Amino acid sequence: MIECRNIAKGKGKGELIVSSQPISFLGGVNPENGEIIDPNHELKGEIIKDKVLFIPGGKGSTVGSYVIFQMMKNDTAPNAIICLNAEPIIATGAIMSDIPMVDSPCETEGLTAGTMVEVDADNGTITIL
Q1: What are the boundaries of each domain within the chain?
Q2: pLDDT in tens, the chain (129 residues)
Q3: CA-based, 20 to 30 A from 73: which of 12, 33, 55, 98?
Q4: What is the CATH number of domain 2-128?
């Protein structure tokens, strides 16, 4: 079990999709299908719907929070979000959209792409399944 700080309450599990680059949800993710569309992002073409997204943080416009909210309405959002360092744009989007979110994991070993995890943002833990 990996301890972390809880940002947006709830529990979510799924396959990890991992990026070493921050993501801008405005213009970087298609809210219609959950595809990363930023042509310069290492995850371009990947779908984050029903996954657990692990990123260093977010970047870009505050409208990104509303893109996350639109993804929730479209059922294209990730099941949970893990950040190394949460910033207000993604945190606000996760809170508005009831997407479990944590940051500052005490360790990241084992949090690799394709790994199944459960994020328990109520208790601030990540469990590798």
Answers
A1: 2-128
A2: 999 999 999 999 999 999 999 999 999 999 999 999 999 999 999 999 999 999 999 988 889 999 999 999 999 999 999 999 999 999 999 999 999 999 999 999 999 999 999 999 999 999 999
A3: 55
A4: 3.50.30.10
